[in-house]
Design a protein that fits this description.
Order of helices and strands: EHEEEEHEEE
Oligomer: single chain
Strand order of the largest sheet: 1-4-3-2
Radius of gyration: 16 Å
CATH class: Alpha Beta
Shape: globular
Number of helices: 2
Distance between the termini: 31 Å
Largest sheet: 4 strands, mixed
């Protein structure tokens, strides 16, 4: 068995509208409201031969009965221009926990209002 790729990221929040709004305002993730949940499709290229363009789903759901809110999860988001993204984040008074440039690219970390770690990554070695 082999995992073919990432199908989606699903966060569960006690206040999904607030959390989806934070991701919209801070990271530019525009989601569509479906009742109490919020969904967005992000384009991704499949690995391997065909490299077909497909999508990954990003969503925020309300916490259901017997469920717990997502907390302590780290999601890595690719960015094209780290400097521009960090300027946008700072302008919204969001604390950047740390940032570094390394062998695999540029990284920065922050936290969303529910306590999830947000990792931003600019792959500086990626080919166009």
């Amino acid at each position: 068995m082999q995992i073919a790729g990432l199908g989606g990221v699903f966060l569960h929040s006690r206040e999904p509208a607030r959390l989806a709004g934070w991701y919209r305002d801070v990271l530019g993730i525009e989601s569509v409201n479906y009742g109490e949940s919020f969904h967005c499709e992000l384009p991704v290229r499949e690995a391997g031969g065909a490299r077909r363009l497909t999508r990954a789903v990003w969503a925020v759901f309300p916490v259901g009965d017997g469920e717990v809110a997502t907390a302590g999860v780290t999601v890595n988001y690719r960015v094209d221009d780290m400097d521009a993204v960090l300027a946008h984040v700072r302008a919204r008074n969001v604390e950047i926990v740390r940032s570094e440039d390394g062998e695999y690219g540029r990284f920065a970390w922050l936290r969303d209002p529910d306590g999830n770690d947000v990792e931003l990554w600019q792959d500086t070695g990626m080919e166009d």
